Amino acid sequence: MHIPKKGLRALGIAESYAGREHSTLAGVVMRKDLRIDGFCSGRVTVGGMDATDTILEMIRDLDRLDINVVLLSGCVIAWFNVTDPERIAAESGIPVICVTYEESDGLLDDLRHHFPGDEERVQAYLRLGERVPVDLDDHRTIYLRAAGIGYPDAARFCRDFTLEGKIPEPLRVARLCARQVFSLHGAVYKWQTTLPGGKYSYPSRKNRTEPFYIKKELKGKMPTDDKNARWVCLECHYIYDTAKGDPKNGIPARTPWENVPDTWRCPECKILKAKKGVFKRLED
Questions:
Q1: For the whole model, what pTM was predicted?
Q2: CATH code assigned to 9-184
Q3: Which one is predicted more confidently, 145 or 218?
Q4: pLDDT for the residue numbered 134
């Protein structure tokens, strides 16, 4: 691959994760000169194992021979739906770069906690291997997993496609598109509420069905014992662990969620805590 070539194209795939049963994926084809000339979408099961098949279907639906790299916003999406970058690269013939943005101890403990006995999922996660840190500039670091492409080329590709911040433009735009697709096509995902007479309507955003892992009894007043509470960002599935806090961003360990300032941003997707309906408490 000749990286300096202006006509290089990346397919950026990101999700808008806020549904009970499904998460929306959007794909944006973007040239190195940042022109957009393609779009696709799909959906995956929350807590399922169908992300790889869905991404391959999106690539096939595009039916493009000029895509040079697939950029994925993380290897684990939609509540531990683990992708297989090696399989995507092998079956599509296109190199794959998975991009994340923060240091992490990994998701293995959380995965085993929420999916006890699911050895297939555990092994799929372990096959991903370790992430490789890549410095952009101005002390900005991203973390990559790559398949079908060397890490020096993967790093250069990400640098060339990143204008500001940490998120490569194909992934930034794909995330925006995913949110819009999610909003416009909510009816497809069966957010239904029964009305008198057996009729159905689709509730407003604030009344949408919550993900299956949110305890209904936790709505409203918070329990008094918050020392082990964990909160999930529904946009990117980052987990805020009260016991650990977020020291890198000024939140000490054992800081209860209600004491985290509204100006705090999710370390992964940078969305504000103050944005309603984005962060939900996890069940124990």
A1: 0.72
A2: 3.30.2170.10
A3: 145
A4: 94
